[in-house]
TrEMBL record:
Source species, domain of life: Eukaryota
Residues in G domain copies: 1-67
Record GO terms (molecular function): GTP binding; hydrolase activity
The name this protein goes by in its record: P-loop containing nucleoside triphosphate hydrolase protein
Organism listed in the record: Aspergillus caelatus
């Protein structure tokens, strides 16, 4: 999961040798959830490609409903992080790998500075790292994508926080992820009302 245009579909397409539609601009090509099955080290792996929150065509609520309704899965960077954390759940962070991409578009020094900021601040990835997530850099898509997925294969499967909340009888809006999206919508409405035209 990540923002529109960061390379989610490219990662999955390269790893699985599949024909997912890859966008090359800022507009999103992924509108639905795609699940691609592959075998790595003799184990069946399902890679899930989701639309990015802050999608150019879909609202965050539509995307969250798509993810919640998909039986296979049951914006801004900060909003993506908040939604992701509430979808996955803090207790499941040991099953999370945070992948940085596009290392070839920055200098080594610039890349390391950005990485330290990502990993060091709780509002970015720091909180997830503290909770057990780990970071991997994607320098070579063909090689690194295999290595990254293989490193997850030994982890026991977990149920996402969203799945647990829905099973417990909460409505989508009552879940942690639903509350994050609703809160963002309220903020947008307040900004819109506060910045409205006056006659």
């Amino acid at each position: 999961m990540g923002m529109t245009g960061v390379g989610k579909t490219t990662f999955i397409s390269t790893l699985t040798d599949s024909d997912l539609t890859v966008g090359h601009g800022l507009s999103s090509c992924t509108k639905d959830i795609d699940v691609v099955e592959t075998i790595i080290n003799g184990q069946k792996v399902h890679l899930i490609d989701t639309p990015g929150f802050d999608d150019t065509d879909l609202s965050d609520t539509e995307i969250l409903k798509t993810i919640a309704a998909d039986v296979r899965v049951q914006g801004s960077a900060l909003k993506n992080i908040r939604i992701f954390r509430s979808l996955v759940g803090e207790d499941n962070m040991t099953n999370v790998i945070l992948v940085t991409t596009r290392w070839d578009s920055v200098t080594e020094v610039e890349g390391e500075l950005r990485l330290q900021e990502l990993l060091g601040k709780d509002k970015f990835w720091g909180g997830m790292i503290t909770a057990g997530a780990r970071h991997e850099a994607l320098h070579n898509v063909e090689i690194d994508s295999q290595r990254i997925v293989q490193s997850l294969l030994g982890q026991p499967p977990v149920e996402s926080e969203l799945q647990r909340e829905l099973k417990a009888g909460k409505s989508l809006e009552q879940t942690g992820a639903g509350q994050v999206v609703s809160g963002e919508l309220r903020k947008m409405e307040q900004r819109h009302v506060g910045g409205g035209c006056r006659a």
